[in-house]
Fold each of these.
Amino acid sequence: MPREEDPQIEVSGGAVMVAMPGATPKEILNVIVKPLERRIREIKGVEHVYGTAMNNFGIVNVQYFIGEERESSNLKLYDKVMQNMDQLPKGTMPPLVKPFDIDIDIPILTAAFYQLPNAKIDTVKLYKTIRELQQEINALDNVSKTTLKGVKRPQFNLLVDIGKLAAYHISLGQVAHAIKSISTNAPMIDTENNTGKLVVFGVENAIDTIDDLKELIIAEYMGSPIYLKNIADVEYSYDIQNYQTALIDYQMGMSTEPEKIKKNEHRKREGKEELKKEVSFRPESEQITMTVSKLKGTNAVLIAEEAIEKIQEAKEELRHAGVGFIITRNYGVRADEAVNELVHHLEITIFIIMLILIPFLGLRESLVVTIAVSMILATTLFIAQLTGQTINRITLFAFLLSLGLIVDDAIIVIENIHRRLHLDIDKKSVDEIIVQATDEIGPSTNIATIAIILTMVPMAFVGGMMGQFMKPIPLNVPVGLAVSLFVAYVFAPYLARKFINFKKIKKEVLAHHAKAHEEKETNGEEKA
Amino acid sequence: MKFEQFLLRILESKRNRWIVIGLVLLALMGSVMMIPTKLVLAKMLPGKSANTFSIYIDTATNASIKEIREVAQCVVQELKKEPEVTDMETFLGQGAPLDYAGLVKGSAFKRFQNQAEIVVNLTDKKYRDEPSFMMVHRIRPRIQRTCGSLYPNTTIKFIEMPSGPPTLATIVVEVYAKDDKMLRKTAQRVAQILGETEGLVDIDIMLDDIYTTYMLSPNKEKIIRSGLSVDQVNKIIYLGFKGMPVAVKNTKDQQDQVPIFVRLNDDSRIVTGESKAALEKKLSALRLMNQRGMMVPLIEVVDIKKRSSSPTIFRKDLKNLAIITAECDMVSQVYPLLDAREKMLEMMQDEYNMSKVPGISTFMFDLNAVDKKTDEPVLIRWAGEMKVSLDTFRDLGGAFIAALILMFLLMVVYYKSFALSGIVLAGSFLSIIGVIVGHWITDKISLAFADVNFFLTATSLIGFISLMGISARGSLLLIDFSRSLMQDEGMEKNHAIARSTATRAKPILMTAVAIILGSLLLSTDPIFGGLGIALIFGSIAATLVALFFIPVLMSNAKAMDPHIEESLCHDDSEEEKKSGRICVLTDNIKEMLFPPKECNDDDNEPLRHQDLVTKFTDILKNLLRQIKESLQKWRKK
């Protein structure tokens, strides 16, 4: 079954952004936000509408009730905005509808790529290297989206010196115009030549390298041409206007042996209990974080593993290029740990229950209960898988919770068989006793189990985040209980028939009776 | 058997029975009183230790990226003193990769220069002594003191991984008012009170700061005369000071286009100082070319005016509001909230007429404030985790009541008696004693060993609801057994009850032990600990109740008495049952679906009223039979 740490909560909503250059927040509020809010309020299933009016643009965030289906919610929002396009005030740019799901997928894996100390690689080159890797990871199965954070994109920067502009009598507009006019991309032209063959030719973008830019003639001053390099610093680097930066600080050794550091092994000192107090950090450096999200209902553990494998494969290549990386988030491992821990708990619990039952019922009887419980859990898991649930913390808690409830049915049936056997084995056949014993507690067990199922069902109607979060409990516990009832009536008596040593019990009972009889007789004799 | 004798002693004496009932009621009262007296603290969901936490930094609205970088670096430097920190990722001007907390805290929407997030990764919690929430608790004041004071209006918030569904903040106060100034004033007042409340940290007002801006207003006459246009002026200023890509170049070997970006260089662009004169100086160097090819200095055609910024307007559900958020430092959110609310009622009395919102709803903590001078109404609403908790508790409470009703109906269908159904329900409800006392004990234990409070949480409530069913089973088996003992073997009522309780004690104990052991491992979990504790102590209580209290109730109930009439009219069918069929099970289901229509016991048979006609014919039949019998007797005589 697909593993996850937390169940996925379906949050649907979106944002509508409308820009109106030059408007103040008050204007935006009255002209854009208020009418838009009203329109959006008309959509069914909307819980809250958040309006934000800023300078130059307004945003209306829409939040649907939790559990509303995402696709149809997005469609409804888009539809509503498009229907009212005609009411848009003058001077606004077309509205941008951005459904949440673009931003809202929680990445299961993030890795920070940074420049290794004393390696020379610029941010642009770093970006190019990571971009290649991102392509590869995106191609993995069940990966829904990968993004890069802290990216510096390559860019030609022309930083104009205002003094020189003034000296050469050039305006900034002229510079922009000159660049715009020379860098155009045109499609190839195909035409026929005189022999009827196809000739293809095209106009190349005149700017190809940084030198082409530098040598660009902007204007003429006093008869001599003025090149771009004369009035501006021209460089090929990254997008300087983008202030979004990502930095990383990490302990020494995180790039080579992260496992050791995570386990605090590097701080151990020879012969001493206490850990070292000081650790050393590498100096801060810029980084690019790659995030990997998975498709809904897929196995976080596998996807994270595959993605890490891909990164590890590229490790040498990266190191060669002077790039190191740290896995900064791995929900796959967390999911695996959480699930394994809980499965372990389940096993321990079943084992303890078995041990506890031995003195009460005997080894074979307690074995029957244990087998019955395992059968119940397996069947419930199977049903959960059929209904397309993932296995996560909450599902497992539902199992742990139901464990205490489902052993009950089996225990009560087996206990009654056990009791009845000791009572009537000399009088009736074993089959008859087993059937009667199961039958005897039948009605009350039925009612009790139905009662527990009934108490669980209303929990499915708890709304909001919390309701969604704990949905696996009302989904799985009643199923487990129903299965347990079935197993307790069908398999438990059968298993009891197969496993319990009737001869021994019969012997014991007969011996007991004989003893009682003897005692009675001796008592009688004494009295006599 | 000893237990049987003991029970019989209780049952036989009226005084002893009352003592048991009294003790149970006392225990119930006592345990329920533990909640309002704060012996047991309630909370939505407890914290959990994680291997990571985040820090959100916000500086003043008009702060630049450089300032926030400084603050972030300060925070990082402080964190480097912590040996358990393995790595930190700082994201300036953007949110960190989305996580569960960021989902609702608007992390994905961060894009301004005054916002930053730091992700702090710690060593594996298995190899670390200090839980992450304790660490945050320890370093929070230090970092806020050293780094929060670098620039005014800086807030540094510590975001821990939520153990359950995430919320915007633990405590969220929404202030609704129409007037912007009023909103601002009230919000600041509320924030101040929250700040003074013990246990609350990371207080933040989500409102823009108001700062000075400079407006360049184009002088129309001058612009037209010099042959320029306002549009041109706008564009050139933007291009010069902010810069923009004017063209792009496609590349063959790269996935992106390469933009060509034009801007003034730093020497010509960066304004020295914050004064109007400095701005004027920079602008004067910028010249525009008019239609005639003449250069016109920009400063000639515009006037510079000083103005305060217009802050962003926030709205929720079509109303203007301001949001104040706060986090709880290792305490339940309920008590600081109530404290702060009391304080607000008291301290804001000088400017406002304060009143509580009447009625009981999930908004029941809201306050109405009316300004004394302007008569303007302001609504102070508590949202955040409190609202989610109240909603959840309300829904769970609803689920609980629904479960109670459903169970009661089921019992009534089964027993055809209100009294017996009541006994079963009472038995299951009383496990609440165990649940509450259990939380109190665990709280004390956890305080003694780990110095952490153990709260009554939503999961405890889930545990309690599921317990009801479990303890119902014990009572059910008891009642069924005693009834069959009385009917089949003709035992006396109290003897039958004592005997059946003694017989059923073993399976009841066994199932209880199974549940307790099953939940033992559950109770160490941060989230589902409450559920574990509820199950463990609840089933202890349920067992005690089933073994002592239920027998007493049964003995008191008239419905337990064997029905003479019933045995009369059951006569023929009883015979059939014994001889022919062994499967009571299928019969039972049959009976449940098609309740037998005969028998008229006068005490309690609510469901059978449904069929008055059959009842009437039954009575007639009975009468006829009796007449026949008496006739026969008379003849014999």
Amino acid sequence: MEHSSRAERVLRGVLITAILVFFLFPILWIFLMSFQTNEEVLRIPPSLFFKPTLINYASLITGKLQTAAGSLDLAFMLNLWNSVLLSTLSVALSLLLGVPAAYAFARFKFRGSEDIAFTLLSFRFAPPLLVLLPLSLYFQDIGLNDTYVGLIWVYQLIALPLILWIVRGYFEDISPDIEYAYRIAGHSWLQTFLRIAVPLARPGIAAAGLLAFIFCWNNFVFALILASADKQPVTVGALAFVTASGIQYGQIAAAIVLSITPTLALALYAQRYLVEGLSLGAVKG
Amino acid sequence: MNASAKSGGDVALSLAGVDKIYAPTAERPVHAVKALDLDVRKGEIVALLGSSGCGKTSTLRMIAGFEAVTRGSITLAGRRIEHLAPARRGVAMAFEGYSLYPPLTVRDNIAFALKGAKINARDADKAVREVAALVEIEPILDRYPSSISGGQQQRASLARALVRPADLYLLDEPMGQLEPRLRALLRGRLKQLLGERGMTSIFVTHDQTEANALADRVAVMEGGVLQQLANQTELKERPANLFVATFIGEPPMNVFDAKVEVGERVRFAVENGPRLDFSANEFSESARREIAKRARVVIGVRPHDLRLNSGSNEARVVSNQWLGDQSHLALDVAGKLMVAVAFSEMGASRRDNLRYDVPAAKLHVFDADDGKAVSHGAAAA
């Protein structure tokens, strides 16, 4: 890198900028849209110049959607809260189950261990709709339909395999001798797991947790079928913006900005651990 | 079971009938350690010597508690330990590879071994500095494991094992990654420390120089079986079988299949090769009796026990290398190479014929079928 010429550096800068603009432009456009009224969004030709308004955010937060046809009730804040609740609890449960399981698969070769690990991964192969229709019937029978518990349970299909397989790789990269040395110095198996293995795999756990959170947050079809209005996350709730009097682009944009904020904040927070993992170094044998 | 462990107070560690089978339910279970009996006396240093895959590391790990014992018992300081967790066995262990905890400095890595030992902070710090000086890592005590070399990590791991009081010290290839000069220095210091403090220890190595230099007794392992546990002299002069005979010693022992006749004289005949003719009284009566039971044997002689320029057998010189303090000659005997070592510079050059003789006192005889030793010199095995 230090030996690159001036021309190379300039070219690299231009290319990076071009790529960033290409990928970030839609997000920027949505961000700008969120401060415009529906009329401003829909004018032709589109313009970067407008009088910013907070009306979209106000209607989302107050739950009153003002349309040409009159006022509509919106459950957006409830949807947002549902998303936070469902994603957080699902990932927490997945970490609680997945991290010890990943450790077991990484450290112990028991009969059928590979088969079990693969079966768990195969949950992600199945088309969700194929699973969902019979599942919704069962859920109605056992009373889990339209409950947080039921949704969190189904979300394990998304989060658990992801966490299990990513974290397993991190555990496998830790030299077992580090753990042996700790155990022989007078510590139990559990202490070794909690104080040595988990902290060393923390970057992997953070990455897997973050990914699982994003996948849970963005999930649409599970909640669409298994939950009714008061349990629905933002992804399903956004359907409400398609109203009889037209599509509320301004509010949709504002809703998107609000709903990516938690994931963005989490990603920025988790980044610390991801970078820490890189600087830890020399764990591999 | 082990009566010796109960009666003899000086036995620190006793393995009795220990087996290790990996994946016992699989199609091809791996029998890594077979019916191992091993007694280590208090304060003794025992080397587990063998090539890779011989079961020496599995044995060490079973004693440490990282591998379950398939069968058999392990007794340490009068306690059965094979079912105890590693933390409760009272052993310390140095690891060959990467075993330092990355977020801690070398100093803290060594000190955390002392946490459970209930030592006050000042004594702990003193102990850490002493052991660090011993293994020459004082300057890197405040560095992190990721910024030091493999050899330094290995020494830090060794220091961490030695700093702690334990009934038994297990050292897994403790000096494998060190450069030769440092290795020789540390061997001496380690031997002194272990001896002074009477620390019972077992170390694993594939390097016989290291085993010879550090250990009181050497356990030679091969194919999961303990071949012989003896001191260095005995391993060289009275190897229990052909494996030990050819494994121990550098260059290795020369061995040949031979026909044998025992009568007035004891005659060995190597096919297309030399005949060795000894007077019967050069062998003890029991040795003669044992040899006479067999028509075919394997005979062996160590390279430096060959007497050159004497006797009636002749062989062509294939190579002659002066190492500065000894000559290594390769001779063509019965279509095989026979190596001879002489401690003076030999004038022989390639293709010369050289006379040699095997003294009866230096002849090793092994069974042709199972390789077990029959006689060493005059005495029966």
